[in-house]
Input
Amino acid sequence: MNNSILKAEGVHTFIEQHHILQGISFAARADAVTVLIGRNGAGKSTTLKTVMGLLPAAKGKITYNGKEIQKNKPYEIARMGIGFVPEHMGIFAELTVEENMRVAMLVEDDAAARRLERILAMFSALKKFWKSKAGNLSGGQKQMLAIARAIVNDTSLLLIDEPSKGLAPIIVDVVIDSINQIKERSVVVLVEQNFYMASTVGDDFFILDDGKVVHSGRVEDLVQNEELQSRYLGISKIED
Output
């Protein structure tokens, strides 16, 4: 993929003595949503954390816009324009929605104000609860806040870990709509167990199994391949 904004090549990651990523290689195109899918424990979340510098790559290379980043600190990677929405959202429950957003801003300037305006138009619930403590929000609203915090800066690449987890179907559709809007301005790499969401927003896919990429291609082809879905995702029938 010559137009890849993010590329991982032969990446190995350990958590304590456990060898989680065993030579992961994938690339995210500049004009696509890339989906990392697979069963629980396949290494999907570890992959995003390694890209973000939260876990060290023991071996291999990660490049962002052609520059190696696997030895950079998480705050350095964030300042390069990479946003991260962790699986457990990472919001500050005792702070208000407004305070959460302002803490996330690297710079409060006119550009940030315009981004914030777009975000509040996208997630109207956040505007409604602007002065409320984040801990009092619903699960769906917390997920909206987590995504909003990650894109309030000038984010060219957004990593999102399991955004549909625990959400009602109607809220999943709201998150899908937000990702479709975000991908107009940022490249998105998505870890997702929900095949409906993955197949709705995704363009390219990489299937992980036991810390390795075992299959990749276009999402539209995976939707038609029930054998791959059954073998690696445990899906016996495609959802309508």
Q: What stands out?
A: The mean pLDDT is 92.
